[in-house]
Write a structure and sequence with these properties.
8 helices; 5 strands; 51% helix; 5-stranded parallel beta sheet
Length: 203
Amino acid sequence: MSIDKPLVTIFETYGSGAPVVGPAVAEALGVPWISQAYSSEDLEAAEGRGAEEETFLGRMLATLGRTAASADVGVFSGQLEMLDAEDAVRELRAHVAEGGVVLGRNATVILADEPRALHVKLDGPLEQRIARGAEGAGIDLAHAKARQAREDSARAAMSQRLFNWDPRYPDHFDLVINTGLVSLPMAVQLILAAYRLKTETDF
């Protein structure tokens, strides 16, 4: 059954302003704001686990998804990833049953079949994104730069591995906004205008 309440998905490269833009869009549409499943701190914790997994992505999936204890029942890693993806789909659809503005969570492809959903990507110049990320998190530029390198790579890798899509390309988005040139308040208004045009509704 299609969702008949306002629905916007947002994917952002690190520091592109989604934590400011997303809640403002949600408030204007009268729907919940649903943030990332995994925070910057979560990803840092995954990276710091050690070398017991052969790749950072492997460590991250082990930390953030199903644990190695699942292997006790004889389930292979590929099957575990499939189950993780199925769980993500069920969880997301439950979250947006009454509409919502969703950041990340592979919502762009999971909800691609929803005719009333608007799919948005926020991006911008690298140095500006790092500076915004540092200011927003209250961290120094070196810390923000490390987060940017980790997150832009890791979030794309998780999307590719679990849902076979690459959010670094614009193929799945209705609207791409450069928040290096467009202010965050204007980005909110652009998203709302695009939502009105796509769904032919007012609010």
